[in-house]
Amino acid sequence: MNQKKKAFTLIELLVVIAIIGVLATLAVVALQQARSRARDSKRMADMKQVQTALELFFSENNRYPSEEEWASGDISSLSGDVFMHNIPSAPTPADGACDENSNFYIYSQTNSGSSYAISFCTGSQVSDFLAGEKQLTPGGINSSSEPVEDGGVSVECTSENVVGDSRGGGILFYAAYPDLGDPIMLIAANSDQSSGKSWGCDGIYIGAISDSNGEGDTALILENPCGTLSAAKTASDYRGGGYSDWYLPSYTELNNLLGYFGIYDVYYWSSSEVDVSSAKSVSLPQEIVRSFKFTNTAKAAPAIETPPSYAKGNAHKVRAIRAVGTPPIK
């Protein structure tokens, strides 16, 4: 006897349709997320390509492009060398933590051409960088992170590379992240404190011989009566940002400062003393500055094999710095 096959009931049919709808929705969401991640990856890749082109431009012109040069749509030198034929635009639409107003690559030349900043935004976390607005500088990509106390004032730190930001009364030119303790940050004044100043204390041995601790060297110089007319006093008298802890950088700190800002063939005093009549002054050769700016990511600048020694009475430039989260550079 043949039995009649039982068809789907209405309820079973509705359940099947519902399951198909859920699966379709999940597939659409997964596709949208994949596309969003792909757009964020492109934004980060664009920044790396642009950074390389900008460093090539700097190596030839000893400055970064102006906003007008950037607006031309390519990165090229006056000699005709083209380092990037088409400056990329941010992919659309905006994603996640970004809105339409932040989904642009906004370039600005800073520090009279010695630095730059490009604002951009990623909708989700990419590698170690959190979602949200970011900034590309010569030192890398910055994104907001935990604050660090700077003289009782909360100073925003960033992910791994934070150099190039305006911080603590100046420009952040060195940052390191030890396994234990706070970030180590060195901040340079926005401009020179003197275009020609003697080191001071000629004929007097101070004992300021550290090549890494400019803050300590400066304190030793100022403890001596001769320090009132010194380059160290000029640096310590600076009050940029309302801070009173500026000092004359040590030999190693000064190497990093000049390397980051791309300053070459100009002499600056360090706080590092040699003997009763001489101290260390730094003037980086152009080729070292170019190598430093192209490859450095918050690491120490290459030091000259034989640190130069100059008479304390010579008139050299002075640029003050301050430290947040010392110990000093080793």
UniProtKB/TrEMBL annotation:
<dbReference type="GO" id="GO:0015627">
    <property type="term" value="C:type II protein secretion system complex"/>
</dbReference>
<keyword id="KW-0812">Transmembrane</keyword>
<dbReference type="InterPro" id="IPR045584">
    <property type="entry name" value="Pilin-like"/>
</dbReference>
<dbReference type="Pfam" id="PF07963">
    <property type="entry name" value="N_methyl"/>
</dbReference>
<feature type="transmembrane region" description="Helical">
    <location>
        <begin position="7"/>
        <end position="31"/>
    </location>
</feature>
<protein>
    <recommendedName>
        <fullName>DUF1566 domain-containing protein</fullName>
    </recommendedName>
</protein>
<dbReference type="InterPro" id="IPR000983">
    <property type="entry name" value="Bac_GSPG_pilin"/>
</dbReference>
<keyword id="KW-1133">Transmembrane helix</keyword>
<keyword id="KW-0472">Membrane</keyword>
<dbReference type="GO" id="GO:0015628">
    <property type="term" value="P:protein secretion by the type II secretion system"/>
</dbReference>
<keyword id="KW-0488">Methylation</keyword>
<dbReference type="GO" id="GO:0016020">
    <property type="term" value="C:membrane"/>
</dbReference>
<dbReference type="InterPro" id="IPR012902">
    <property type="entry name" value="N_methyl_site"/>
</dbReference>
